[in-house]
Each structure stands twice: as C-alpha cells, then as structure tokens.
C-alpha cells in the first residue's frame, strides 16, 4: 500500500490517496509508517458499504465502469492466495527461492516456527494472516458472498487482463525509493504460575477438566491459553461464550426458582410443561402431578377463552379459585419464538381478604349509623317542637358519616 502510494504521489504530488479494502491492518500501517503522508486515508469495504447505504446509493442501479488506470493479471490477482507472490515471481526466480504460501493464523505460525527452527531453507514465503488472503479480510461487508465465490470472481476478473503493461507514467519502481525499515515489536508476556492459571480457570467456571471445552470460540486454542491471555490483560473472562451462557442460564434459573410470582409454561395445547416452586405453592400442587395436564384443570375454562381465539391476545384477569381459597392476577401470553404459552400468577389472596374485611367493617359502621339515625328520628317525632333544630343537625352529621363509610 505504501509503495503504491509513493508511486502515485511521485507522479501526481497533489493526489489525495485513499486505500480501500477489507483489511484493518492497513489503518495501522498508514498510521504507523505514513511519515511522508503517501496515504491520506484508509477506508474499509464495510465502511464504504455503510456510507453508500446511508447515502441511499444502490450499486445495482449504477453503470459499471473500468478503472482509470488499467492493471495486468498480476495486479488484479493480488487479493487472492498466491497473488502477492505472482508479483514477486521474477525476484524469487532470480534468487532461486522456492515459493510457499500460508494463509490463516495457524498456517502462518506453523511455517514461521519451521523457519525459526531452521527446518525450512531457500524458500520465499507468502504469509497471509487472513484465511484466503486479502479477500478473507475482516472488514468485508456483512452480506459478502462465500470466500470461494469471491475468489472465483477475482480470478475470472484477473484472467482477462493483459500479462504485462507498460507503466502509465515515466515513474517506475526502479526509479523510486521503496525501501522501508521494520522495527522489532516484541511483546513480553508475563508467565503465570500453575496456581494463577487454575485461579483464572475457576473464575471462568472451569473447575474440572471436562469444563475446559477448548472450543476456540474466544479465539484461543485452549482454555489454558485463554487463561494466560487473561493473566496478561489481553483478554477478559467474559469473552468465554460457554461461561457467559452458563452464567446467564443460571441467573434465569435463579429468577425462575425464587421469584415471588408463579410461572408456568404451557405447550400450544395448553398442557403444562414446567412450573416453578412458587406456582406449586400457590396452586398447592406438585409439578410431577400436573405435568402434561391442561391448565384448565387448575384455573377453569372461561379465562382461557380469549387466548384460544387469538394467540396474540394477552390475558390479564383477576381470578378467584374458590376450591383453593385463593385469588390471583392471571397473566398469560403466547411466546411465538418458543411456541409456548407463559403464565404468570401473582397471589393477591391476602389483599382480597383485607378488602373483604374492610368492606364488612364499613357495612357494620353503616348499619350502626343508620340505627342511630332511626332512633334519633323517632325521638325527634316525639319531641319535635322542643329539639327539632338539634335533631336536624344530628341527622346531617350522621348522614355525612354514612357517606364517608360508603366511600
Ligand atoms: S471460549 Fe471458553 S471454553 Fe472455549 S476455548 Fe475459550 S475459554 Fe475455553
């Protein structure tokens, strides 16, 4: 990228150079080595895709155009496996190196180990950290086709290009200084002790050997490698998917077990699949006894009528079950994704009893007030001429008291 940028800037010093590709490493490369500002900007394919989408531009509606500067077969093949080497073949031939290619992290590590152990000699190695080379880069648009489909398209595109081209400018690679200095960038990793590794494994819920799934989902080959990375602050325990899933499931289970509400799951025919301990307590049943039974047997038929007609309906009703001497708020909805009904019951038996007791007390108060009114009226009739005004006031006060009690 930098070499290309240098050539462009040399032939056109005012050019604004933008590298576009699926490679995030180019951002780092431009930032780290771009001392002469040969690359002005780096955009990834997914950034371009987002930009086009936000601008409401659909490439399918645009006419296809050729690139301004033609390329030859080697240039067009660059992003696929062996593409880099095809551009260096003449150099490799001169020095008599044998060509080798590795793509993907594991393959690159393997070949580098062989080289560092002096097991391989006289080779020119093309290393691509991304599987499939550049076309397997991480910043492809999310809806990109299969990498083999992309490879075929690139190779089809390249095979129609000329084998070689005259340089479009007087600037040639030979006349340009494309040298670059690489610096060592070693990372010194502290080595954890066995106890420290075990402690980290425990914090990831891995207590037994069988807990170490070595599934590679976190990007590390083994759980121990992952634990070492955690020790070196290069990873976090939450980046272990099985651990996070297990934890989430255990939180869900805890809620199911200890919530103060009854929870029931029913199949589409409303037969009981699962109930939590609170449901057993409120409905005075054991799960084993009601498993597979229709919910009607517990709450009656009427309440379920609405939801039978329309699965999107959500039932929210107060329900008093006399046989069990309980009152509940009954909520029921259908979870389409799981194909189950979920029922939540809140026990309001005590609140209902309190309301009943309060109403009974009100009634007694009313009866007593009425009795006083009746008595007063009788007395008033007898001594109307003497106490008429006072009796009328008493009646007003007692009537007001009665109204307050009724409210
Ligand atoms: S994701 Fe978890 S279980 Fe899988 S290898 Fe990494 S640490 Fe081990």
TrEMBL record:
Keyword 4Fe-4S: yes
Superkingdom in the source lineage: Bacteria
InterPro entries listed in its UniProt record: 4Fe-4S_dom, Fe_hydrogenase, Fe_hydrogenase_lsu_C, PAS, PAS-like_dom_sf
The species this protein was found in: Acetoanaerobium sticklandii (strain ATCC 12662 / DSM 519 / JCM 1433 / CCUG 9281 / NCIMB 10654 / HF)
The PAS domain, residue ranges: 248-294
Signal peptide extent: none
Protein name as annotated: Putative PAS/PAC sensor protein
All residue ranges annotated as the 4Fe-4S domain in the record: 196-257
Keywords linked to the UniProt accession: 4Fe-4S, Iron, Iron-sulfur, Metal-binding
GO MF annotation, one: metal ion binding
Lineage of source species: Bacteria, Bacillati, Bacillota, Clostridia, Peptostreptococcales
């Amino acid at each position: 990228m930098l070499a290309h940028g240098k050539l462009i800037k040399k032939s056109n010093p005012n050019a604004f150079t933008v590298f576009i590709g699926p490679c995030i490493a180019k951002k780092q490369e431009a930032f780290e080595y771009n001392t002469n500002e040969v690359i002005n900007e780096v955009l990834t394919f997914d950034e371009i895709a987002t930009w086009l989408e936000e601008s409401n531009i659909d490439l399918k509606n645009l006419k296809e155009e050729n690139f301004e500067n033609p390329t030859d077969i080697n240039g067009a093949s660059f992003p696929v496996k062996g593409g880099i080497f095809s551009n260096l073949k003449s150099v490799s031939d001169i020095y008599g190196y044998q060509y080798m290619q590795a793509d993907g992290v594991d393959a690159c590590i393997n070949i580098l180990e062989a080289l560092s152990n002096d097991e391989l000699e006289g080779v020119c190695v093309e290393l691509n950290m991304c599987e499939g080379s550049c076309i397997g880069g991480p910043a492809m648009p999310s809806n990109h086709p299969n990498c083999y489909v992309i490879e075929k398209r690139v190779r089809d595109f390249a095979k129609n290009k000329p084998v070689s081209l005259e340089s479009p400018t007087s600037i040639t690679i030979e006349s340009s200084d494309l040298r670059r200095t690489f610096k060592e960038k070693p990372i010194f990793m502290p080595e954890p002790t066995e106890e420290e590794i075990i402690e980290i494994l425990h914090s990831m819920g891995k207590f037994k050997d069988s807990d170490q799934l070595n599934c590679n989902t976190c990007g590390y080959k083994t759980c121990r490698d992952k634990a070492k990375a955690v020790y070196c602050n290069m990873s976090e325990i939450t980046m272990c998917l099985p651990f996070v899933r297990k934890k989430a499931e255990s939180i869900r289970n805890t809620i199911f077990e200890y919530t103060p509400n009854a929870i029931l799951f029913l199949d589409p025919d409303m037969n009981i699949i699962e109930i939590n301990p609170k449901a057993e307590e409120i409905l005075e049943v054991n799960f084993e006894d009601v498993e597979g039974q229709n919910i009607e047997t517990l709450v009656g038929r009427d309440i379920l009528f609405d939801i039978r007609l329309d699965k999107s309906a959500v039932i929210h009703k107060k329900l008093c079950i006399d046989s069990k001497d309980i009152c509940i708020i009954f909520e029921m909805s259908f979870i389409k994704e799981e194909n189950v009904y979920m029922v939540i019951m809140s026990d309001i038996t005590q609140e209902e009893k309190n309301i009943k007791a309060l109403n009974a007390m009100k009634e007694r108060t009313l009866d007593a007030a009425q009795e006083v009114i009746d008595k007063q009226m009788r007395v008033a009739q007898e001594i109307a001429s003497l106490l008429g005004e006072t009796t009328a006031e008493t009646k007003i006060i007692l009537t007001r008291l009665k109204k307050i009690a009724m409210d």
